[in-house]
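Work Package 3 (structural annotation) set out to generate three-dimensional models for the target panel prioritized at the project kickoff. During this period the team completed the workflow that converts sequence records into discrete structure tokens, so that structures can be stored uniformly alongside our sequence database. As a representative example, we reproduce one entry of 340 residues exactly as it appears in the project archive.
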Amino acid sequence: MGKSIPQYLGQLDIRKSVVSLATGAGAIYLLYKAIKAGIKCKPPLCTNSPICIARLAVERERHGRDSGELRRLLNSLECKQDEYAKSMILHSITRCVYLLEAEASACTTDDIVLLGYMLDDKDNSVKTQALNTLKAFSGIRKFRLKIQEHSIKVLELISTIWDTELHIAGLRLLNNLPLPDYVHPQLRRVMPALMEILQSDYILAQVQAVRLLSYLAQKNDLLYDILNCKVHSNFLNLFQPTQPGSLLYEVLVFAERLSEGRNAPHYRAVKWHYNEQSLHESLFGEESRLADRLLALVIHPEEDVQIQACKVIVSLQYPQDLRSRPSSCQPSRSYFKNTE
């Protein structure tokens, strides 16, 4: 051969470099072709995937065209589907309602009735998705009265099924609706369930539950039922500074409305009796430690919580009718007399 070992190795290194460069160039070219193909690639024009249908509908809405996809989704809900398919279709309908305002407004009350049937499905995930879809439609004024008709059914679901996602969906729907007076008897029956959800360990469900209770506390015919509802012995843990600020704020609003309600002249005109484990005794009873909790929250890092804690303190010290007459105002029996 006549080549030394160093010469041979050097030639070998050159060949490797050439091969490497060729391989690298080939890889880059293949990558370029793949990217180019991806750019040119378009989604299939016809697909039965609910997610794909929703995506195409949004694209068409951006171009100012009525896609008709929301109607197609609603029609597909009438066909026989398994639980998973129904859940996916309902989820896609919910997204379309929020994203395709014109198409959602063009729907009819018959569509709301169809969604209401889904609340009777045997699968909890279908019920939950149906509640979310009704919540989406409740943002459209013309459907609100029709959706209200399902209030009693929603309350029944919340009180009989212990499912956090269902609770959140149902409570969000109820909190987005004005509840008619004919629902009040059912509300009395489900009050213990609402109080249990409030005392659970699921923040989103707790926040939604206390918001609904705060709304109901302003109803004169429901105030006693709320105050006399049984609670756990550690109920005041909801006022601990370690609780999330969003929950603390809502719980304090609830406490303020209860305090104002029980101090209203028409409520004080009646001598009410409460059971020993009632919410009233936990918050306003002789042995309540609410004052300590409130004082700790006055220095809470979140300003909204501080302000709301102060409002509760004021409502406890001065009945509502006396607060409007400062010149003759005398403090009512104060829960803060030992800390002044």
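Residues 199 and 241 are 16 Å apart (CA to CA).
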